[in-house]
Amino acid sequence: MFYGTVVWDPWLIVAQIVGIQCLYYLTLGAFLTIFVGTRVSRMTLVYFFDYATVTASTATGWCVIVSILLSAVAGAVYLVYSIERAKKCLDFSATLYIIHLFICIAYGGWPSSITWWAVNGTGLAVMALLGEYLCITRERREIPITRFRSNYWFIPHFDWSSQFYVYNMDLIL
User: Fold this and answer.
1) Residue ranges per structural domain of the chain
2) First CA to last CA across the chain, in angstroms?
3) Which neighbouring-strand residues pair with 153?
4) Which of 16 and 145 is assigned the larger pLDDT?
5) CA-based radius of gyration for the chain
């Protein structure tokens, strides 16, 4: 199948969404442990999902903000290796942050903090734009083509099972 052809595979899409969501929360947990875990006596899910912890008025709040933004950068790298297409980066980034919004609403209610919206909106933009940039740079790399030896020939034949011409590389001695 060619690179540009699209096959509708909903199970693959769901698996990619779940995988990216899990990697995002693992990364967020690692950054929160590094930055916030040294400042508080007990790490809880409050720092993941409660909008009140995302504040610019305390040092711990700034550590939460930095953790969220660094997780967005890591999420962009995850998009490169799991999605591999620049035009899908915005879709998967928005899906991740919409799911995160629903989890935050279920955990602590509607986020009424402007800081929470600004930080998560910035995280969404960073993840989508950086992911697109990294995917485009990866897509634009040259494909290495090795030279075939002179005793190899492409011999086309018709494959009746798939009804397409198939090119086999047969050794001519």
Assistant:
1) 10-139
2) 31
3) 170
4) 16
5) 23
Q: Which are the contacts of 8, defined by CB distance < 8 A and separation ≥ 6?
A: none
Write the DSSP symbol of residue 143.
P
Residue appearing with tokens 């009746």: 160
Which pTM does this prediction carry? 0.79
Q: Which helix (H) or strand (E) holds 144?
A: none
HEC readout, 109-130: CCCCCHHHHHHHHHHHHHHHHH
Q: Phi, psi (5° rounding) for residue 157?
A: -145, 160
Q: At 57, list the tokens.
A: 């008025």
Contact 32, 48 (CB under 8 A): yes
Dihedral through CA 80, CA 3, CA 91, CA 131, nearest 10? 20
Q: Which of 68, 75, 79, 78 is nearest to 120 (CA)?
A: 68
Least confident range from 28-32, 108-112, 125-129, 163-167: namely: 163-167
pLDDT the model gives residue 8: 82
The model's confidence at residue 97, banded by pLDDT at 50, 70 and 90, is very high
